[in-house]
Every structure is written in structure tokens, then in C-alpha cells.
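Show me a record, fold above all:
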Amino acid sequence: MANKTITVKKALDTRQAALFVQTASKFKSNVKISIDEKMVNAKSLMCIISLGIAEGINATISADGEDAEIAVDEVAAVLC
């Protein structure tokens, strides 16, 4: 299991949300993102849009699986 907490540097519009999901989906690990108390599947576009990821908020990316460390790093990079 790998975790990384970041401060979002750019809000996600629909196109960037799709890029976020594509990045998460290329990994075998289960990838999640949580903001406040809400945790969702990072591979689901609808879940990501429902979070309303805005600039300046803190988000935690977590992954569980064989490629968890690299998944967390690459997915977090989309938000930084």
C-alpha cells in the first residue's frame, strides 16, 4: 500500500479529469483518491468529477497492488 498527500495545484476540468482517470487506469493496482472524508475510485471518471477537485485543496492518493508506488507518484503528478 502506498499513499501520498498533495495540495492540488490545478483544478480538474472534464478533459483533465479524463487524463487523471487514464493515468490511474494504466496501473494494475487499485488506485483511490480521497478529499476530506470522501474516498473514490481514481479509475472512474464519474467518481472523479463528483469530487469537484479544485485548486488548493489537499488530496490523498492511495494505491494497493504490485505497482502501487509508481501509480501513486504518476497519478499525483497529474494534480501538481
User: Anything to note?
Assistant: The first helix runs from residue 14 to 25. Residues 27 and 71 are 6 Å apart (CA to CA).
